[in-house]
Design a protein that fits this description.
- The chain has 100 residues and is of the alpha+beta class.
- It contains 3 helices and 5 strands.
- It has 2 domains: 41 residues; 50 residues, IHF-like DNA-binding proteins (HU Protein, Chain A, Irregular).
- It is 41% helix and 27% strand.
- 1% of the residues are buried.
- The mean pLDDT is 92.
């Protein structure tokens, strides 16, 4: 699902909502979530999952092309942990894997 499709779905669910209003709502939610993660805050959406920021230490990596050792600097990255309800919902609605 794209951001545009999310805006369209919001407009469908609330009959009288204009596209510009739906766009503002979606953008506000995403920018608020981004701001919270930049500040290092945790975002919890019950039934969906948690967004956190994980800090990774520097380490000695390897350039896959040349094989030379490269120091990878420390970094902070967003991390999503799926909630139990969403995990179960996705798992039960998934089509059975095909064996070939």
């Amino acid at each position: 699902m794209t951001k545009f499709q999310l805006i369209q779905k919001l407009m469908e669910k609330s009959n009288n909502l204009a596209q510009q209003d739906a766009k503002t709502i979606v953008n506000t939610i995403f920018s608020s979530m981004s701001d919270a993660l930049v500040k290092g805050e945790r975002i919890e959406i019950r039934g969906f999952g948690n967004f956190t920021v994980r800090t990774y230490q520097s380490y000695l990596g390897r350039n896959p092309r040349t094989g030379t050792k490269v120091e990878v600097s420390p970094k902070r990255l967003p991390f999503f942990k799926v909630g139990k309800e969403l995990k179960e919902r996705v798992d039960t609605t998934a089509p059975a894997p095909t064996t070939e």
